[in-house]
Amino acid sequence: MLYRRDLLSIEDLTVGDIENIFNLTNYLKTEEGKNHKPLSGKTVALYFEKPSTRTRVSFEVGIFQLGGYPLYLDNKSLQISRGETLADTARVLSRYVNCIVARTLKDETVRELARYADIPVINALTDREHPCQVLGDIYTVKEKIGSYKGIKVSYVGDGNNVANSLILISSKLGINFSIASPEGYEIKNEIKEKAIKYAKDSGAVIEFYNDPTLAVKDADVIYTDVWVSMGEESEEEKRNMIFQNYKIDLQLLKLAKSEVKIMHCLPAIRGKEIAAEVMDGPSSVIFDQAENRLYVQKAILSLILG
Ligand code: CP
Ligand code: NVA
Description:
The chain has twelve helices and nine strands. It has 306 residues and is α/β, with parallel strands linked by helices.
């Protein structure tokens, strides 16, 4: 049961929780489900320290559709920008709203918010994880391929927040997962060890490479993300050099299964991590993937607050 719980990491979810989210998402996508309003009279604060298009809009629209009121709070316009503590901000928000959806630079910040808030806190991206993203992603895999158990998802690129959440959810759910990252940009050991432990229980095969051509062999899904995440802008030039062989192009696609699906959490930079003809080509499910964020997050909110 997710009721009144925080969602800070994929680690917080059992396989049963994830299946419940997906089942409710199926319902919310039906005509009847579109009238489901469990958030009637409830307010959800969106506390954001970084830019966002999809997460902000899909949460705001989703909260409205569920009958609730979304309150967007940019950290620069709160008293926190003048020295009020995060703990006091969390205590005060708890007196006014029913839930906090937070996008923070540091993962410790979302955890500190959750520690001092008396209401549930949902991670909407930190430097460590992006759990709502990958829940939408695996829901999309299930929708497109029919099932996720035993399929192969290959991630090419930076061992970043999205990669962390993706390896954790894949290893929990029994999805075979391979990743190719440049040396020095691999997934950190702390996350690797957790994924390997989950994979022992689920039967998932987890593989780590530096060479993208090895990682994508016979893949059902190839996934990528930007080379430069938010907060890493000063490394842009260096990263563009280091990652230049980690582009999803038509040549790389040939090594995967012929019916491979291409995924990207967005925003994307065509010509860098993904070639334009791949992003806009027939194998791409990227915009359906973005749309599913809305429904999966509505399911998460309904289960936590409903
Ligand atoms: N994928 C994603 O979280 O996009 P935004 O940064 O636009 O929210
Ligand atoms: N890794 C990217 C994901 C954006 C949704 C970032 O953190 O900027």
